[in-house]
Structures are given as C-alpha cells and as structure tokens.
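Lecture 7 notes: from sequence to structure.

We start with a single chain of 422 residues. Read the sequence below before looking at the structure.
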Amino acid sequence: MPPSATLRGLVTRQAMAIVLAGGRGSRLMELTDIRAKPAVYFGGKTRIVDFALSNALNSGIPRIGVATQYKAHSLIRHLQNGWSFFRNERNESFDILPASQRVSEENWYLGTADAVYQNLDIIGSYAPRYTLVLAGDHIYKQDYGVMLEEHCETGASVTVGCVEVPRMEAVAFGVMHVDENDRIVDFLEKPADPPPMPGRPDLALASMGIYVFETEFLAQILEEDAADPNSSHDFGKDIVPKLVRDGNARAHHFSKSALRSGPESEPYWRDVGTLDAYFAANIDLTNTVPALDLYDREWPIWTYSEMTAPAKFVHDEDGRRGEAISSLVSGDCIVSGAQLRHSLLFTGCRINSFSTIENAVMMPRVKVGRSVSLKNVIVDRGVEIPEGLVVGEDPVLDAKRFRRTENGICLITAKMIEALKA
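Now the structure, written as tokens:
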C-alpha cells in the first residue's frame, strides 16, 4: 500500500465529521416551509444531506454528528430510519445533535461555529484528533481522506475546502484569495470583483463550507469566539477570517479529492439553494450520461430506502400508453396510460391516463389525475394534481396560481392546489 494511502487511513480513523444541517434554505421557497434544506428530496431516492453523510462514511470516517435546528422533524426521522447502522463495538458512532440549549438556557444555535461549540462535550467524549466540519446542503462526491491528509501534511490551523468556479460567478460565494502555495491570504464574502487563482485569471476559489481542524485547537478557538460579544459565531464570517489573518489557513482544491465518473469528467459540486438550481440538478440526472454518477457502486450514496414494489407501466393503446423516456422512476410508482419525458419520480407516484409529463421533478406520493399536462414543474410531496390541469403553457396564468421562477419553473404545493378549489 502506498505510504500516502496508509497515512490517509490513519488520519480518517482519527477524525469525526460534524454535519451542519440546521439551515432553512429560504431561497427554496415553499419547499422548505415544512422541512430544513438538507432534508429536501433529491435524485429520486435520496435527500440532500445524504451526500455529505455518504462522503464521510465512504471516506472511512467512523464518527459522525449531525447538528439540526430549523424544522428538523422530517430530517431527524430520515436520519433515524436511514443512518442507524453504526455500531459502537466497531468504534463507530452516529449522533443527532438538535439545538437543545446545552451551553446556555437562553440560546439555540446562534451560528455555524456556535452549533459546534455547543457540542464540544460530545465531540470530546470521542476524543477525535481531527474534526471535519461539513455543510449539509450541497450535492457532490468527495473523498475527505485526501483533504484530511493534506491538512496533516501542511500543518495548517484550518484547511478550507474550495471549489473552482468561473471568476465572476464567485460573486455569490465566500472567496479565498490564495498565494501560489494555496495559503489563504484573504477571505472575501460575496466580492464584487473576486480575486483570481494564481495563474488562472478566469477562475476563483469559492468556499464549500468544509473545514478541517485539529480538535484541540478547534475547541480553543471556539471558546474564544463564544466569549466575544461582537462575533456572529459563524465559521465563514468569524472563525476562518481570524485564522486567515493569523497566517496559517490553507485552501484545499476540490478537484484533488472529487470522485469522478470518468477520467475526463469535471468535478461535480452543486449548490441547489434556489428552485432553478434544484430543478436543473435533478433534471440533469435524466441525461444519457449525467454529470453526477449515481450508479457508482464503489462510492454509493447511502439513504433510507423503503421496501416497495417495482415501478409499473400499464396500457398499450394509441393515446393511452404508459411509458417513460429519458426519465428516472422510483419504486411503487405506477404510470398508467401516461407519458413521461425527462422527468424524475420519487417513490409512490401515480400518473393516470392521457396525461403528459415533461421536465418534472415529482416528490414522493404525488398523484396526477387524468388528462393533465405538466411541463417544467417541481411538485411537492403528496400533492394531488386535479384532472385536466395544464401547467407550463401560459406563463401569466402559471404565475398567478403557482410559484414561478425567472427561468419558468413552477413549484406546485398542496396549499396552491387547495387555493385553486376555493
């Protein structure tokens, strides 16, 4: 085994991952009215949080904690159902960490740094040498062992995971200004003129919300931050900028540790924080060769999987043929005399006769009546689409009835359908 692989395995076994999964995700509008952003469904079977969790598991990190806060019930239920296989006798652990006023009887989690600070006693009980702090709301596949190994070799106070993006697209992110050795010399939050990468004037390094610390050092800086009344107690706003000023913060390029579906594939990372971005990332999966490979058995995306019957397609008559073209259809779905194109159906959907569905993301248990036409839609869990409804042909009418984005994507929820009946 190569020396680096030996070091990587040693480092990952000494690490604990803390996934920050308390964010509301308000830009997803009504999709997060009843659930936190990490609990939003993605890809036909999974939830967004499953990607960070699967990366940690597949990387060989034996201990994981998930900090929850905003409308956490569905997220906690998912974690209990799908992630309860960790075994203490194998030195594994999986902790759900709701905001429970453990440190103060007055405060819930005040920021991302405070969410970790309030759980330092739990982290300390496992005595990990390294702590990996992860955002729980992005879609990507990454071997965290590579990043942990790099952190160990450089001796950095913090290593920040960064993704390379076109420079002017970086205006929406926290941007790392680095020197030729990837030492971070400045951190800029959503800069109007993002600094370019050395030797790459067309690209900038955007923060992925991933941080590696030695646990003892992390506890020290979080104690200091908690005592600072002027701090917002956030990694991106307070902790990382302070360590950058101290001069020993390093950037880790996602391209070094990304899991690719082929040798020429681009590293895949998506912030699905808007309806348009969420829709595009899901519909991309219906392509013949999608940018995100969900069929990779060597790096599986773990999740809770219901025991269901297979998907079924029935009727074979002209004008009433159950078929799906360039679509993903999950278990317990029945497509009865209807046609799907470039659509993604989660578990338990029912599509009735004479309906046409194109460019649709349908969450679990959606029921579509007869003679419905849907195009460019996201349909929330359990919605019942009434017979004859047409969406995607009249933008003015669509905007009056549903949440319609600038790109013409309509979000349909149960409340919106109820309002049609009023």
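The CA atoms of residues 215 and 409 lie 44 Å apart. Keep this in mind for problem set 3.
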